[in-house]
Amino acid sequence: MKQAEERYRKLERDALSPEQQRIFDDIALPRHGQVPAPFHIYLESPELCQLVQALGAFCRYRTGLSPLLSETAILTTAASWKAAYEFEVHAGEALKAGVPEAVVEALRQGRAPSIEDPDMDLVYRFSAVFYEKRDVPDELFEEATSRFGRRTVVELVGVLGYYSMLAIALRVFRVPASAAD
Q: Of 10, 38, 74, 75, which one is least surrounded by beta carbons within 10 A?
């Protein structure tokens, strides 16, 4: 029986087209020369990769969510999709942003965490309920828009969508958690 080809492959900069090299360099520059695994996938389509990178920069650094809240949404997304690479990368970022270790571990184990911070709890509940029900009940939507404002809720939904897109690619291309090293 023929062995299936590895789905994920880490691209070497020198083997890329000039267009891919430019995008590779744009991604690597703010990351101390590193290009995360999802972008090795998306570089196969340079235009898509460039757009993914731009959306990611907004979702990661320019929403109305604090790093604590953003990382809570990202970890909840990674846990929901069982995207081990995404979870491992963001577990460290979440801890740096102030997400308690017990919350990170509960999510890693697929359990609902006990969260004391009310804003963090709201982001977690909003995200987890959406992934479970594929909807957000009116009461939870109203609570989120009252607490954060409509614009930030729109941006939260954008974060959930962006990191779901990455998680899907990571799952389809079977990127292991070890690629986060």
A: 10
Token pair in block for residue 111 = 């359990």
Task: Tally Cβ neighbours within 10 Å of residue 104.
Answer: 21
SS3 159: helix
Residues 6+ apart with CB under 8 A from 172: 7
Are 74 and 155 in contact by the 8 Å Cβ rule? The answer is no
d(CA 34, CA 42): 15
Predicted confidence (pLDDT) per residue in 37-77, tens digit = 999 999 999 999 999 999 999 999 999 999 999 999 999 99
The answer on pLDDT for 4 being more than 70 is: no
88-99, pLDDT tens digit by residue? 999 999 999 999
How many CA atoms, within 13 angstroms, populate the side-chain half-sphere of residue 48?
11
Q: What is the pTM of this model?
A: 0.93
DSSP class of 112: P
**Sequence letter at residue 103:** V
